[in-house]
Amino acid sequence: MEPVAIVGIDCRFPGAPDTGAYWDLLMRGADGVGEVPRQRWDAAEFHSPAGEEGRANTTEGGFIADPDAFDNEFFTTSPREAAAMDPQQRLLLQSAWRAVEDAGIAPRDLAGTRTGVFVGIMGNEWAQLHLTDYDNVTAQVGSGNGYCMTANRISYHLDLKGPSLAVDTACSSSLVATHLAVNALLSEECDQVLVGGVNVALTPALSIFYTQAGLSAPDGRCKPFSAEANGIGRGEGVGVVVLCRLRDAIADGRRVYAVIRGTSVNQDGRSNGLTAPNRWAQQEVLAAAYRRAGVEPSDVVFTEAHGTGTALGDMMEVRALGHHHAGRVGKPMAIGSVKGNLGHTEGAAGIAGLIKVALSLHHRVVPASRFAAKENKQLKLRDHGLRLLKAPLRLPAGATVAGLSSFGMGGTNAHAVLESAPARAARPEPVGAAAPGGIGAAVFTLTAPNAEALRRNLLVQADAAAARRTALGPLARSSNRVKAGHRLRFAAAATDTAELVATLREAAADPERLTRLSARPAGRTRTAFLFTGQGSQYPRMTAALYERSPLYRAFLDEADAALLPHTGRSVRDLVLAGDEAVHSTRWTQPALFAVGYALGRTLRELGVRPGMLLGHSVGEFAAAVLARALPLEGAARLVAARGALMQELPAGGGMLAVRAAHTDLRARIESEPRVGVAAVNGPAATVLSGDLTALERIGAALEAEGVTTRGLQVSHAFHSPLMEPMLARFAEVADEIGGSVPEIPLYSTVRGRVLDGEAMDAAYWVEHVGATVLFADAAGALLDAGPTHLVEVGPQPVLSGMARRLDRAAGDGPAHVLPVRGPESTGRDLAEALAELYRGGVEPAWDAVYAPEERVAHPLPPYAFSTEHRYWARNPVRRSAQPGAVRQERPAASAAEGPHEPGSAPSLAPVRPGTPADPVADAVLAAVGLVGGYTDAEVGPHDRLYEDLGFDSVMVMELKNRLESRLAGIGTLTVQDLLPRLSSVGDLIAYLRELGATVPAAAPRGDAGEDRALPHQERTA
């Protein structure tokens, strides 16, 4: 059989709220057994030490904490639907999400994939309580119950397209589900699968059954293979694992906990009783699993046994194992059972054992079996080649094979053979190691549905990063890959783990800082690159970035290599050395081109794809290369020739910045043939260029009239008539290079607009030398196109301020992003820029942020769900009360932010029901609240019915009926007309007003028989 990898794990068992706590519980030899919580049933009411008819002989068992807690807002599930859902569905939803994250996958990335879901489940007590309460059966109660829904709901919420099914074979359910999942992978029906098992004990029914069948331990504890064994103790819990083919796991660089080598399932058939174990069937299922795994029994180092702690069950299992292992003289196989720690978790028993074996192989130690100190001598374990683990078993180096058994009460048996992960999978190789990468800093990202969820999870991540020595690169890269998909995006740059931990904690504690580091992208991003021109240069520009960022270094080296044949000296070396010659025109222009090209290519490699380009004067050469209008080599030759030829021109030229409109200066320069308008940077920002003597005359006259002027430190009169002597020689070079039409919209500062099918050919570049730089027109046209981000590409910000003064858009306008901020800039600024772009909606190519050796998976704590909302069966086994569902209320929440801290005020104050001036809104808000189970304070006009309130087609139909009964003047609504108007509650209100909706004067606030007037703590499903 092809090996299958276990790549993700999440679980919650008695005394162990997560996977780490589960492993700790096992290694300590502790248990999670205690008194039956009053939330479940009054154990004393159903208890009889003697186990009288209709009574249980124990008041103890293994119970998880807070099974009523469910983060319904995270899954966009209305309170009414959440209250109707079997808690087993809720537990599986959250555990599935966390297991996928543990596998190094962003759960939302699975949408639309052939991912399967296989769930083992045995109990369905919630359905027994709710589907027999006929007066309160609703559509939500129907979908909230049923075995199939435990799997189907996971597939629905994650949008998975693979097989989705629940399996009930009693105690072996979740290991049988694993067997089916493995087969689905091997047949390539799926590319990955989620396998889960769950059990929640809501009633004493099975405790009574076990007692009446003589199977129940009076102290509520399983004691596998122990002399003290006296029956079953009930347990509960949930576990989910993520499986994929081992070859796929290795190719994707996933961490592998363990490998499934073979599985088998069979049935007892007709034996000595329907519920009695069958030794012969058990030994055959072992043999079949060994064959399929291609191992000999002697290869198996330890087996996680079914081990219920019943006399007959333990004896049959030992004999079945002994059939295969009795010959292991001197080297008996180790056995144990997790049921000693948890109790018998029934439908979750197989997954509990699977996770224990996987963790044992991963950590290379097998925990001791609880209650093993007093071994049951009657089992004669040594004679059967077995030994009970009384102390942890350290596993030797190399491959280790283990077994796992799970037997159903009705006779369906399952066995699995596992093996430790191969070395290359246990320590994954870096992914994409051949590709360059690294920017000198890291970007840690996290997403959440709302601010409170973000704060909660920031603290979880900070605590985990602080608790262990962790390299920043793999940690941050894993956050980029896994913690994605929610509307609220957090991103922070850091250079070491300590800085990151401090940043996360400060953001969680300071709302203002959290706001700065997080945002909700409004829609599709449109990014523009603005390339700076001459005047922005300085010695050692971007030197720190070159030293710290391998990615930037590679592209600057590439530009330098393209320039070297035409400059005769390394531009890169000149810049890095801090040579003042960088201010000499023959070096300035190629140096700025090299920096602009390298920074632009670095941003593109990081996944920042420009939708618009603009270059100021010489900055247009790098823009043309990114637009694929010029090849790198051609542009390098052209810009080198341009700088050298300009340098050869006679001295005596200069440039004058004037705070005036260029139209107001036209008359001044008409009489000066050696002066021209070099640049129009804004409505009152003009640069004149030409003969120095003429400029001095013009400047003096302007100053006398109160117009501000400033002479620029330049070597020549760029973009002026004085450039004409170089044009013929430059044209010869340009003719050889040519040029083509930009493939990305390029806003030309020669034309003052976007180039529309026009080539940037030789004629264009010759004109470019002397033409006025129409920055204001070009940038204005670019701003009119609606970019969301302006990224200035150059050694220091120059154009951002000019563009900000030009922005004519209403509101905040585009975000200005600065990857390099000047002489002190390092890779940190580039990382900050990338973080800002991500917060704004850009999807970076995260691998490029990190050096090849950092591109390895690093486990992060899974998502921390809110426990604020509680849903439970009201008095589930009180004979005097009908069952229902109680929802414990949350504080009021705004439509924009979801829940906030207790006592805080909503950030958005919607118009509430009861406002005399708006009775239609009152009625609609009340109806929406009733259908979803929301309180008055939880629904506002800006709430989206589907995305925020969790409405579905069934709820829409109910809402339609309620609106028709509450409002006059709207006639009979059709679903077809209603659906397009359900984007938000406010849109629905506006639509109903258009129809002429009114509220009858005598209409009561609520419909007769509605439960809106019930106290919040007694809201039923």
From TrEMBL:
Biased composition (Basic and acidic residues): 1007-1021
Keywords: Antibiotic biosynthesis, Phosphopantetheine, Phosphoprotein, Transferase
GO molecular function: fatty acid synthase activity; phosphopantetheine binding
Region (Disordered): 879-916, 1002-1021
UniProt xrefs under CDD domains: PKS
Gene3D superfamilies: 3.30.70.3290, 3.40.47.10, ACP-like (1.10.1200.10), Malonyl-Coenzyme A Acyl Carrier Protein, domain 2 (3.40.366.10)
PROSITE patterns: CARRIER (PS50075), KS3_2 (PS52004)
Domain Ketosynthase family 3 (KS3) as annotated: residue spans: 1-420
Any one Gene Ontology BP term: fatty acid biosynthetic process
Keyword check for Transport: no
Domain Carrier, chain residue ranges per copy: 918-996
Source superkingdom: Bacteria
Species in which this protein is naturally found: Streptomyces chromofuscus
Protein name listed in UniProt: Type I polyketide synthase
